[in-house]
Amino acid sequence: MKILLLEDDTILAESLQEFLELEGFSVDVAKSAQEVYDLTYENSYDLYIFDINLPKDSGFDVLKNLKDADDTTPTIYISALVDIVSISKGFDLGASDYIKKPFDPMELVIRIKRNYQKEELLKYKDITYNPQTKEIVKDGKSVVLGSIQLEIFDKLIKNINVPVDSFELLELLENPNGNALRVTISKLKSKLNLNIKNIRGRGYKLEEV
Fold first, then answer.
1. How many CB atoms lie within 10 A of CB 140?
2. Is the CB of residue 56 less than 8 Å from the CB of residue 80?
3. For residues 203 and 166, what is the distance between their CA atoms, to the nearest angstrom?
4. Can you count the helices (H) and strands (E) in the chain?
């Protein structure tokens, strides 16, 4: 997911960029309205996060100009302006959300993941998996796994062709031991027809066929 962050406070901008990138997002930073116009001319974004108080054009002006140019990208305002007039104006201009400063960066991440992040389905043979809802569909039919089997399956399908360390998988078991892990893997292979290989000294790998 590609995000454009408009924030003229250098320290805050850098810390938010680092935090969001650690969560897996791609983030460009603009410190002025003109930088936003330049970046949006050259790039396409999935989400805008705009501050409002800026030296020249405000975050309100920026969003209005983008909307006037038929830019429909969802926008979250982050601002120290907490009066109802400012909040109302933000939504009237077309903002999707408004977060009052100061805020916990994790709150921003939660809102992004719940409201703006596109669901990316993972596919393996005749299986489709939604990592957000953890729904498994095999050959067009929904499949229900036990909680531990589901967590192990989640780890493996997110790392197709890459060994997952046995210790990482053992941590998912209620009573971690090698035999229990082997039994769980065996049941998974049988139930979903998975090609799971034991890589000696490294762990388990879900291989594409």
1. 7
2. no
3. 4
4. 8, 12
- In this structure, are residues 11 and 35 in contact, taking their beta carbons and an 8 Å threshold? no
Q: Domain segments of the chain: what residues?
A: 2-115, 122-206
CATH number for domain 122-206, candidates 2.30.30.100, 1.20.1560.10, 3.40.50.12780, 1.10.10.10: 1.10.10.10
Helices 147-157, 178-192: axis angle to 10 degrees equals: 80
Report the alpha-carbon distance of residue 186 to residue 163 in Å, rounded: 16
pTM: 0.60
Residue corresponding to tokens 């330049």: 38
**CATH class of domain segment(s) 2-115:** alpha beta
- Residue 203 to residue 182: CA distance in whole angstroms: 11
pLDDT in tens, 92-147: 999 999 999 999 999 999 889 878 876 678 899 999 998 878 899 999 899 999 99
| CA–CA gap between residue 184 and residue 2 (Å, rounded) | 37
Contact 186, 178 (CB under 8 A): no
Distance separating alpha carbons of residues 202 and 163, to the nearest angstrom: 7
* Token pair recorded at residue 12: 């805050």
CA 29 to chain centroid: 18
